[in-house]
Amino acid sequence: MKRRSQLFAVKPVEVLLAEMEGENRLRRVLGPVSLTALGVGAIIGAGIFVLTGLAAHDKAGPGLILSFVVAGIGCALAALCYAEFASMVPVAGSAYTYAYATLGEL
Protein backbone atom coordinates (compact mmCIF):
# COMPACT_ATOMS: atom_id res chain seq x y z
CA MET A 1 0.00 0.00 0.00
CA LYS A 2 2.92 2.33 0.68
CA ARG A 3 4.18 1.92 -2.88
CA ARG A 4 0.74 2.87 -4.22
CA SER A 5 0.62 6.06 -2.14
CA GLN A 6 4.11 6.98 -3.36
CA LEU A 7 3.03 6.46 -6.96
CA PHE A 8 0.23 9.00 -6.69
CA ALA A 9 2.05 11.49 -4.47
CA VAL A 10 1.02 15.06 -5.28
CA LYS A 11 3.24 18.00 -4.45
CA PRO A 12 1.23 20.97 -3.12
CA VAL A 13 1.58 24.33 -4.84
CA GLU A 14 2.95 25.90 -1.65
CA VAL A 15 5.85 23.43 -1.65
CA LEU A 16 6.54 24.14 -5.33
CA LEU A 17 6.61 27.88 -4.63
CA ALA A 18 8.95 27.40 -1.67
CA GLU A 19 11.33 25.24 -3.73
CA MET A 20 11.52 27.85 -6.47
CA GLU A 21 12.83 30.55 -4.17
CA GLY A 22 16.55 30.98 -3.76
CA GLU A 23 19.36 29.58 -5.88
CA ASN A 24 17.32 26.81 -7.54
CA ARG A 25 14.97 29.25 -9.19
CA LEU A 26 14.47 29.09 -12.96
CA ARG A 27 14.46 32.50 -14.59
CA ARG A 28 11.50 33.53 -16.73
CA VAL A 29 12.99 34.84 -19.94
CA LEU A 30 10.35 34.04 -22.58
CA GLY A 31 7.62 36.56 -23.27
CA PRO A 32 4.13 36.03 -24.70
CA VAL A 33 5.23 36.35 -28.34
CA SER A 34 8.11 33.91 -27.89
CA LEU A 35 5.91 31.38 -26.11
CA THR A 36 3.22 31.65 -28.77
CA ALA A 37 5.75 31.12 -31.55
CA LEU A 38 7.26 28.18 -29.70
CA GLY A 39 3.84 26.59 -29.18
CA VAL A 40 2.78 27.05 -32.80
CA GLY A 41 6.09 25.63 -34.00
CA ALA A 42 5.76 22.61 -31.74
CA ILE A 43 2.17 21.88 -32.71
CA ILE A 44 2.26 22.57 -36.43
CA GLY A 45 5.88 21.98 -37.39
CA ALA A 46 7.54 22.59 -40.75
CA GLY A 47 5.46 20.04 -42.64
CA ILE A 48 2.65 22.55 -43.02
CA PHE A 49 4.64 24.48 -45.59
CA VAL A 50 5.29 21.44 -47.77
CA LEU A 51 2.21 19.28 -47.42
CA THR A 52 -0.38 22.03 -47.71
CA GLY A 53 0.65 22.89 -51.25
CA LEU A 54 0.66 19.26 -52.31
CA ALA A 55 -2.74 18.60 -50.77
CA ALA A 56 -4.23 21.76 -52.25
CA HIS A 57 -2.90 20.94 -55.71
CA ASP A 58 -4.07 17.33 -55.90
CA LYS A 59 -6.99 16.66 -53.62
CA ALA A 60 -8.21 19.78 -51.88
CA GLY A 61 -11.48 21.51 -51.88
CA PRO A 62 -13.16 23.72 -49.33
CA GLY A 63 -12.35 21.09 -46.71
CA LEU A 64 -8.75 22.28 -46.60
CA ILE A 65 -9.75 25.68 -45.26
CA LEU A 66 -12.16 24.07 -42.83
CA SER A 67 -9.40 21.80 -41.53
CA PHE A 68 -7.21 24.85 -40.84
CA VAL A 69 -10.05 26.46 -38.89
CA VAL A 70 -10.62 23.30 -36.83
CA ALA A 71 -6.88 22.94 -36.14
CA GLY A 72 -6.70 26.61 -35.11
CA ILE A 73 -9.57 26.13 -32.67
CA GLY A 74 -7.82 23.09 -31.20
CA CYS A 75 -4.58 25.05 -30.78
CA ALA A 76 -6.45 27.91 -29.13
CA LEU A 77 -8.07 25.52 -26.65
CA ALA A 78 -4.69 23.98 -25.83
CA ALA A 79 -3.26 27.47 -25.28
CA LEU A 80 -6.12 28.31 -22.91
CA CYS A 81 -5.41 25.12 -20.94
CA TYR A 82 -1.76 26.12 -20.55
CA ALA A 83 -2.82 29.62 -19.49
CA GLU A 84 -5.07 28.11 -16.82
CA PHE A 85 -2.24 25.85 -15.60
CA ALA A 86 0.16 28.80 -15.48
CA SER A 87 -2.25 30.83 -13.36
CA MET A 88 -2.93 27.87 -11.07
CA VAL A 89 0.75 26.89 -10.58
CA PRO A 90 2.77 30.13 -11.03
CA VAL A 91 6.26 28.60 -11.15
CA ALA A 92 8.67 27.97 -14.00
CA GLY A 93 8.84 24.41 -15.30
CA SER A 94 5.90 24.14 -17.69
CA ALA A 95 4.14 20.86 -18.38
CA TYR A 96 6.11 18.68 -15.94
CA THR A 97 5.49 21.03 -13.03
CA TYR A 98 1.79 21.34 -13.88
CA ALA A 99 1.41 17.57 -14.09
CA TYR A 100 3.36 17.02 -10.86
CA ALA A 101 1.23 19.52 -8.96
CA THR A 102 -2.12 18.23 -10.23
CA LEU A 103 -1.73 14.54 -11.14
CA GLY A 104 1.17 13.46 -8.98
CA GLU A 105 4.56 11.98 -9.74
CA LEU A 106 4.41 10.14 -13.03
Notes on the protein architecture:
The protein is mainly alpha-helical and 106 residues long. It folds into two domains: 1-20 and 93-106, no CATH class; 38-90, no CATH class. It is 70% helix and 0% strand. The chain has helices spanning 2-7, 13-19, 32-44, 47-58, 62-88, 94-102. It is elongated and about 55 Å long. The mean pLDDT is 75.
Q: What share of the residues does DSSP label as strand, in percent?
A: under 5%
* Mean pLDDT figure: 75
The structure class reads mainly alpha
Work out the oligomeric state of the chains in this entry: single chain
Q: What gap, in angstroms, lies between the N and C termini?
A: 17 Å
Q: In brief, what are we looking at here?
A:
This protein has 106 residues and is mainly alpha-helical. It has 2 domains: 1-20 and 93-106, no CATH class; 38-90, no CATH class.
Structural features:
106 residues; mainly alpha; 6 helices; 70% helix; elongated
List the helices and strands and how they pair.
Elements: H1 2-7, H2 13-19, H3 32-44, H4 47-58, H5 62-88, H6 94-102
